[in-house]
């Protein structure tokens, strides 16, 4: 027992430090594995890097010095190995990387080599080790050496944020590992300043782990994790502008939020090209990827139903109708997302033979990791069919109670709008004709435009779209279309998700970008169920998907004064083009400089804060100390840069008095010591070369 306690006492501190090395490596290097799109094979290299970090730490414990030469030799060997063994791959890799950087494309390492080179796993292993080794060395150095600890922490925070600045996403798991590591390092190397017992360190580490677990489980998802930089910057812009009416324009990014969100866009929309959803299927097919539906429109938002319908299967009612009236084939589809969602993306038309997917709030099914069985052929079946046995009449009554509401004031305007255009409620008996009539009416009254401007604070979303602004995105058309159909007595609901085309599939995998996020409607037909309809002028999923693809790929900023293309009723729908990542593409932002302005502002704020902290660090550090402690802290800081024998005698005498005697340093002695310290700063600065002065003044903050 005593031997175990002795072992625990001697090695617990080392065990905690090793845990921190692993957390830091997973947090930093692991995020690079995810964000840069390395193939899964480099997980072996990630494990090797963790072992190298532990090896560096053991070397320091034994020799009390970091293995700089060893780390440098390994880096040189890796570089030479790539040059000698993979010359062709390295050349192609560098050229492709240069093209990505120049054109500002989405960087994905596993796509920088042609398909016939994907088997070169060793090459990616060496690239990953080459990138990760300096980072692991920095992590170990921050744990082992107290020198420049604050600078090391800032460097690691910058490395952690780097993927965000190149428009990549972070993973929550790795990010929380980094947060635990960096908080631990800050507490013990900067804030606490002293070496505490292993028991105290263990308590702090446990507390940080518990806090991170609670934060990841119960708090709203962090906007940095699993969102690319443009989304984060747009949120920062919103924070600065307080929402509507900001001087730069209120920008919204395409994509889906992690939870059910009924908010509608109040400003211009920018198309985000980051990856959203990956779909695997044996047979390519086109379909909406349905996320959720909403029932009630009020206060410029859509809301869920106020009364839940138990055991609802509204997503599969029409699928059962089709299966009864035709022999359409089905297949299993696997869907994975880049971030966590409360709901499951579902292609049309879902089959639930075992009724294992209950529909929550008559809106969506919960997230599942199991494949979904769907009817994969395009379905345009609107004729009469057989009512299938077991059809729920009570659900139809529920639909009429919840999917026909229109706000009272808006109802009067919509009714007059329909009457003025020769549409009355007699058309409700033919849902397809009603939808086509409403879609054509919207096309004649408004244009599809992602730069619809800012919604005035005192205006209704639909009213402003139909009667004043007359331009908007898919959410404008879907919202207005749903309410107009309800005014005709046709139950309709608003739906959000993504569009997917058969042409998106490559070797059975379709990667759907964020800009394919879309809004459409579902119309309820008695005896059949909910049927999806497109409300934009394109009229179908192929048209709207092609429009979004072409909007991203074309240079709209130069051709039409930085405006996203609009669709008039007499325009043709653009044809699809191949989106080659190595063909120049331009940003679709209508305000191309807003991100640059925000980025520059963030950088300037960081520089100002950094400059203030570094120049006032000793003052902040010693503000609660007595004079003896102040003298010793400043003396130690000076001793780090100057050999002891070069410190003047007067300064040394005051420091020794503070250290080795019971004398309490008076205010006059402290002020004299501080004066000598400042004189030394001036003299030392004059003795440095110009590049050393830059580091001394502006990096280390001594002047």
UniProtKB/TrEMBL annotation:
Residues annotated as domain Transglutaminase-like: 466-537
Keyword annotations from UniProtKB, A to Z: Membrane, Transmembrane, Transmembrane helix
Compositional bias segments (type: Polar residues): 570-584
Residue ranges crossing the lipid bilayer per the database entry: 12-30, 42-61, 70-87, 122-140, 149-167, 173-192, 199-219, 591-613
Region feature (Disordered): 553-584
Pfam families (alphabetical): Transglut_core
InterPro entries for the chain: Bact_TGase-like (IPR052901), Papain-like_cys_pep_sf (IPR038765), Transglutaminase-like (IPR002931)
Superkingdom, taxonomy of origin: Bacteria
The species this protein was found in: Allocoprobacillus halotolerans
Compositional bias annotation for Low complexity: 553-569
Protein name as annotated: Transglutaminase domain-containing protein
